[in-house]
Each structure stands twice: as C-alpha cells, then as structure tokens.
Amino acid sequence: AESSAASDVYKRQYEDKELWSRAIETLEQGLARNPRDGRLLASLASLHEKRGDEASAIETLERSLELRGDSWRTMTRLGGLYDQAGRREDVVAIGRRLFAQVREDEEDERDPDAPMFKAQPSWYRSSYRSTGRSAQRMSDLRSYFSTHGLMDEFREIGHAEVMRQPTNHDLFTVVFNATYREAGEGARAQEMVAAVREATLAKERIPPSYIRSTWERYLDGAWVWPYQFDPELAEARVAELEAAGVESLELEALLELARIHWYQKRKDQTIALLERTVERFPEASNPRAGIAASLFAEKRYADALPHYEALAAILEASPPDLAEEEEFARTRAY
C-alpha cells in the first residue's frame, strides 16, 4: 500500500513537470521493493507510453499481465500498444484471451445481493439481465476487435467460442448479430443457429435465463432474422419453399415464408399467405397473431379486429401449463 500511495504522489509531481526519468526511477525503486505491485507497473507503463517509449511500455504491461493474467484493463491496454507497434498477431492473441474471460454468469447477475444488481432502480431490475455483467463484457469484447479492425477475427473466434459455450446467450447474440447483421453472412448465421439448437435443445441444455419453450422460440426467431440482411439467401429459400408446393407446407414453413415476404416488404403477399395459413390451421395462434399484426401495421384496423378476437378465443381455450409457468417465473426470480 505504501508503494502504491508513493506512486500516485510521484506520478502527479513529475508528470506535471515532465521529469520523466526521475518519475520512472522512483517507480522502479518502488517495484524493486514490491515487484508484484500491479498499480506501480500500470503507472510505469503509462509514463513510458506518454514519454513515447512504446517498447518499454509494452514490456512493462507484459510483466503486469504475468502477475494479473485475468486483468481485462491490462489486456486491452496491451492490445492497443501491440496495434500501434504493428503486431497484429499479438493483438489477436490478446483478443483470444479476452474471449476466454467470457463465462456463463447470468445466474450470478440475477443475485439480488450483488452490488451491480442493487445499483439498478427497482423498476429496471426486471430487464437488468440483458444489460448485466455478461452482456457488458461481450459489448466490450466486440469493441476491442472493432477498434483494431479485427471483426473477421472476432466472428471466426466467436463461432468457435459459441460452440464451447452454447448456453451462453449473450455470447451467441453478439457473435450472431456480427455475422448476419454486420457481415451479411446469412447462411453462416443460420449454421450457428442449427448448431446451437443441436447443442442445447437436443441435449436438454438450456441457458439459465430461459426454459425450453422460450429458448426454442428465441432460436426459431433467430433462424429467420438473417433473411433481412441477406437477400440472396431469402430468395433462395423462397424458391425452395415454393418449389415444394405452398399448399403442402407445414405450419412452421408457412410462417417462415410469410416472414421472408414481410422482410422483403411484400406486404400483400404476406397477408394473403397468412390468410391461407389461417384457413388450413384455424386453431394455431401464430398465424392469427401474424395476420392481425400485419393488418394493424397497415392501419386496416377493421380487418384486423376479427383476427384479434379469434386469437383471444384460441388463447382462452388453451389451458396454461402451470409447471412451465412456474419454471419460467423461477428463471426470472429476483
């Protein structure tokens, strides 16, 4: 503690006067007494960096990282210096270490005694999970790769990490979005969805904040999202479904086709397809909800009302699954 306090005093005093050599000498004397003091190493690295001695700054941060291998801040600082030095492979290596820091900690984030949880207003806590530690860490990780122009590497490493942690929802979401939304790689994104479905639903491994039915619905939605940003993929899928014969398609395939039409702004085709789907599957809630929402979005309120009424009747006639509701409530118990 004494050496850390001394480092703060000397750093302010000598940085202001730009007496770099004396400041560095003082910090090195402190390190001689306490070579494992992370704050001294961080201060020394800052002085080397401000002095323009990039090599010494890198060497000092590498020493610090040997002592504190899990320090996110040290790794990102070192990655930035590697980038300035043109050491691209080392920047990527730091990125891999940052990926290794991402863990499945959603359960911890829901702990009402956790300081981060207590810091949230009571009215916000129900949605705190989506902005908790894991989500923030993934956002920081993406920023690291983006800042250094390494988004291709982010997606490549991210895909492998998703398969190592298939129940990590935040990891999957950020890598998935970077794949289909930013890179327009719809087919690859769908491959991710299929692989995660196999690794979770097929093996009864569900993310902590989900139950089976909600996770299944999430993945169903994720499967069609890439069609918005990959027109070629969308057109190919439409051709495939139509070639099979629309009248012979099962409910899920019809809903997928309707979503594609909607994403491509073929609103009349969307509504017409949903009307045919409702005729074939009158007791299904999803096509009713889809056509009601589509008509409402077009401000065809009178046309939408009967479908909302029919949807209400379907839902009222469906007894709730109390066991599922209890499990769903448990995953969101704060």
Note the run of SSEs as H and E: HHHHHHHHHHHHHHHHHHH
Q: What is the overall silhouette? A: elongated
Helix content: over 70%
Rounded to the nearest angstrom, the radius of gyration is: 27 Å
Unreliable residue runs: 104-131
How much of the polypeptide forms β-strand, as a percent range? under 5%
Number of strands: 0
- Could you report the average pLDDT, rounded to the nearest whole number? 83
Q: How far apart are the first and last residues' alpha carbons, in Å?
A: 38 Å
Q: What characterizes the major β-sheet?
A: none
Count of separate DSSP helical elements: 19
Structural class computed from helices and strand pairing:
mainly alpha
Secondary-structure blueprint:
Elements (H helix, E strand, L loop, with lengths): L1 H16 L2 H14 L4 H14 L2 H14 L4 H13 L3 H14 L4 H4 L5 H4 L14 H15 L3 H14 L4 H14 L3 H15 L11 H13 L6 H14 L6 H13 L3 H14 L4 H13 L3 H17 L4 H10 L3
Please characterize this protein's 3D structure.
The protein is mostly helical. Helices cover 73% and strands 0% of the residues. Helix 3 (38-51) packs antiparallel against helix 4 (54-67) and helix 5 runs antiparallel to helix 6. The longest helix is centred in the C-terminal third of the chain and has 17 residues, at 301-317. It starts with a helix and ends with a helix. The relative contact order is 0.05. Residues 104-131 have low confidence and may be disordered.
Task: Name its key features.
single chain, elongated, 334 residues, mainly alpha
Q: In short, what is this structure?
A:
With about 325 residues, the chain is mostly helical.
